[in-house]
Known about the structure:
The structure holds 2 protein chains of 2 kinds.
Chain A: E1 2-8, E2 13-15, E3 28-36, E4 43-51, E5 59-60, E6 64-67, E7 72-80, E8 90-100, E9 103-110, E10 114-116, E11 118-121, E12 125-126
Antiparallel strand pairs in A: 1-2, 1-9, 3-7, 4-5, 4-6, 4-8, 8-9, 8-10
Chain B: E1 3-4, E2 9-19, E3 24-32, E4 40-41, E5 45-48, E6 53-61, E7 67-77, E8 80-86, E9 91-93, E10 101-110, E11 116-124, E12 136-147, E13 150-153, E14 161-162, E15 170-176, H1 178-182, E16 190-199, E17 203-207, E18 211-214, E19 236-245, E20 248-256, E21 263-269, E22 276-281, E23 287-294, E24 302-310, E25 315-323
Parallel strand pairs in B: 1-9
Antiparallel strand pairs in B: 2-6, 3-4, 3-5, 3-7, 7-8, 7-9, 10-11, 11-15, 12-13, 12-14, 12-16, 16-17, 16-18, 19-20, 20-23, 21-22, 21-24, 24-25
Amino acid sequence: xxxxxxxxxxxxxxxxxxxxxxxxxxxxxxxxxxxxxxxxxxxxxxxxxxxxxxxxxxxxxxxxxxxxxxxxxxxxxxxxxxxxxxxxxxxxxxxxxxxxxxxxxxxxxxxxxxxxxxxxxxxxxxx
Amino acid sequence: xxxxxxxxxxxxxxxxxxxxxxxxxxxxxxxxxxxxxxxxxxxxxxxxxxxxxxxxxxxxxxxxxxxxxxxxxxxxxxxxxxxxxxxxxxxxxxxxxxxxxxxxxxxxxxxxxxxxxxxxxxxxxxxxxxxxxxxxxxxxxxxxxxxxxxxxxxxxxxxxxxxxxxxxxxxxxxxxxxxxxxxxxxxxxxxxxxxxxxxxxxxxxxxxxxxxxxxxxxxxxxxxxxxxxxxxxxxxxxxxxxxxxxxxxxxxxxxxxxxxxxxxxxxxxxxxxxxxxxxxxxxxxxxxxxxxxxxxxxxxxxxxxxxxxxxxxxxxxxxxxxxx
Lengths: 127, 324
């Protein structure tokens, strides 16, 4: 999954691999986020959340603390996938916010959505 | 319930709603007794979700054996199943050869030689039958019992092939030799049987419901007698000592635990059977006894004293060797 910066002073674009954007409802996953935060030694926090927009957090990892190294470092963000209503499926944007000193200095959005499939099957006919 | 012929190819049109739209999905229809046992399947049929109902065609060949199977539809995306449905109505695979099998009854008896026979009386009403198709029927009869309210079979099964003859009442004899009966656990109380009919190519075309009966076993028509009482303890005779003075041979012995009927004492030359020195009788009552027998010659090497007695069942003996 590829991420693009939507605000802040961080790098122009962050690349994140995400092997399977189609996930089961309610499943527990861990996003492994490679974050480059400069300068080194800052007490930072990162939050991954899914939602239709950046103000509506359907599910969130909460803020996970880490200390910047000035280079790319993997930060684990465990998160439980949303459960759409029965018979419904949905696609959710993926947002990553990185904080230090209480303010967000990196805000990224995934270029691919997480898909939680759903649906139904009606009565079948035989031909 | 939908009914199809064995092996018939049909296509199920399934309206599938998969959300969100644009997903590369696969749908599979399969038939079986449960969702882990696929006896027929459409394979995975790909389609792209539209977010609304979309008719997906799932062609499938019906199972080759008559009977009832359940239908399942699974829908996958990205390799994982996100929809799993079971059809509300089972699918009936109907034989082109209408067959009715009825078991009319079972009787049984345990023979005096320990073997067991069960007689299954049954009839079928087969139509569309063509003898050249090599049809036959099997009768499976299984001894069993109830254990805590649950029927437990002994897995002794007898198969009997019969060329079906419509509308004729038949009796099949099932036989278990004594060796087989001896291996059955105790508590046998009845039998369960069913009849299966086959047609050319060994395709099963029908089977009867299981027929269960209890309390059937008799011995040649008479209920088995109670087991005999355990035998009484055998007589215990011990020769406590033997002494030889000249040609007089003195035997001390003791009868314990029960009287015996006869006691015969024989003194033989040691190591030179059957050279008998002398014989006589003694008391068979409980207690210690001494008997002195006088031979016509004096033993030189030694003697072996035997006491033979009847303990009520068999002849028995005890012996005492004495070497000089």
